[in-house]
Design a protein that fits this description.
It is a single chain. This protein is an alpha/beta fold and 359 residues long. It folds into two domains: 150 residues, GTP1/OBG domain (Spo0b-associated Gtp-binding Protein, Chain: A), CATH 2.70.210.12; 175 residues, P-loop containing nucleotide triphosphate hydrolases (Rossmann fold). The protein contains seven helices and 14 strands. A six-stranded mixed sheet has the order 10-11-9-12-13-14, with helices on both faces. It has a five-stranded mixed sheet with strand order 3-1-8-5-6. The longest helix is centred in the last third of the chain and has 42 residues. The chain is elongated, with a radius of gyration of 29 Å. It binds guanosine-5'-triphosphate (GTP). The site of guanosine-5'-triphosphate has 24 residues, from helix 2. This is GTPase Obg.
């Protein structure tokens, strides 16, 4: 399966079936009334968010989603059948946009549905148009056209924590240690070529999801490296873990590594820069005490919360996880409060409206 996070698809819902114009013909009933049935509704095209999916590959391959037309109505008051819907599962975090880039839907919960193209209504048969003055109408309706258009889908993974750092900082090693994800780990850069999600379980039985995005390199936000395309996947996280190779195996000082990533996050825009960030110095097992002290002195002025860990030996990892979890819970509580406030606001508005109607 390839990781596809952007696709363009053509969607076409089914047209409604035509209504039927027909008259009852029975023995001994000389003038049977109208009995033309309605046409069936055209099929919808529906996206459903599913936790079983993590790529838009299926849509990338299909390119077109066309639902069936509704069947025409028939005599003897028989209605036409509905056209079959096309139902496509998409990953949680899929955003649907129209041709002008307006967001139509943001599918953020398992099972959430979006009718991306609605099938046309079936036309009414002549039986519906009989009145006391016109008992034998011949008129029946055509079916309505189904909606159609081009839609752009963009996947922004839903993770609580985003791992960022230069290639080889040890992001995959940390993810493998703390979560159920099993990323490839190698001592050459860019072993990670697609974002990888891992679920971390905490003592309370709950936990959080971490996204490891491919190693950023300078200029990534301008689309030069691999990272740019993937930065969007950490836009919705509660906290960023900025990983730095404290052993400086690739020859870059810790300051250089930090500044390079800062530059990339700044280049991407406010959403990432303003996120809470923990600076994590990895590979501490390979550091001498005086090297660690030197790093501590160098970063003291940066004002970032820092952690020293070894993703290989596990040193410092537990403490880090608790701190991350704190941040995640704080954000969840804030979002829950915002949602509850909105509900209250809505209820107040409805009450006010009702009051004004009564007066
Ligand atoms: N000594 C030491 N080596 C580590 C530690 N963590 C990772 N490494 C090594 O660093 C190398 C790179 O680790 P990865 O986890 O693949 O790094 P990454 O940041 O995921 O790299 P990309 O996938 O390229 O983005 C591997 O050889 C790891 O074994 C650590 O805590 N101590």
């Amino acid at each position: 399966m390839r990781f596809i996070d952007e696709v363009k698809v053509e969607v076409r819902a089914g047209n409604g079936g035509k209504g039927c114009s027909s008259f009852r013909r029975e023995k001994y009933v000389p003038r049977g009334g109208p009995d033309g049935g309605d046409g069936g509704r055209g099929g919808h095209v529906i996206f459903v968010a599913s936790e079983r999916k993590n790529t838009l590959q299926e849509l990338y391959l299909r390119k077109r989603l066309i639902a069936k037309n509704g069947q025409s109505g028939m005599g003897s008051d028989c209605h036409g059948k509905y056209g079959a819907d096309v139902v496509i599962e998409v990953p949680i975090g899929t955003i649907v946009k129209d041709e002008d880039g307006h967001i139509l839907a943001d599918l953020s919960e398992d099972g959430e549905e979006f009718f991306v193209a609605r099938g046309g209504a079936g036309g009414m048969g002549n039986a519906r148009f009989a009145t006391s003055t016109n008992r034998a109408p011949r008129y029946c309706q055509p079916g309505m056209e189904g909606e159609q258009g081009i839609r752009y889908l963009e996947l922004k993974l839903m993770a609580d924590v985003g791992l960022v750092g230069l290639p080889n900082a040890g992001k995959s090693t940390l993810l493998a240690r703390i979560s159920n994800a099993r990323p490839k780990i190698a001592d050459y850069p860019f072993t990670t070529i697609k974002p990888m999600l891992g679920q971390v379980f905490m003592d309370d039985g709950d936990g959080f999801v971490v996204a490891d995005i491919p190693g950023l390199i300078e200029g990534a936000h301008e689309g030069k490296g691999l990272g740019h395309r993937f930065l969007r996947h950490i836009e919705r996280t509660a906290v960023l873990l900025h990983m730095v190779d404290a052993a400086c195996e690739d020859g870059k000082s810790v300051r250089e590594q930090i500044e390079e990533i800062n530059g990339e996050l700044e280049g991407y825009g406010k959403t990432l820069v303003e996120k809470p960030r923990l600076l994590v110095f990895n590979k501490c097992d390979a550091l001498l005490d005086e090297e660690r002290t030197a790093i501590e002195e160098e970063i003291a002025t940066m004002g970032l919360e820092t952690y020293f860990i070894s993703a290989v030996s596990g040193e410092g990892v537990k403490q880090l996880l608790h701190r991350i979890y704190d941040q995640v819970l704080q954000l969840r509580a804030k979002l829950a409060k915002e949602a509850a406030d909105k509900e209250v606001e809505k209820a107040d508005m409805i009450e006010e409206l009702n009051d004004s109607f009564e007066k």
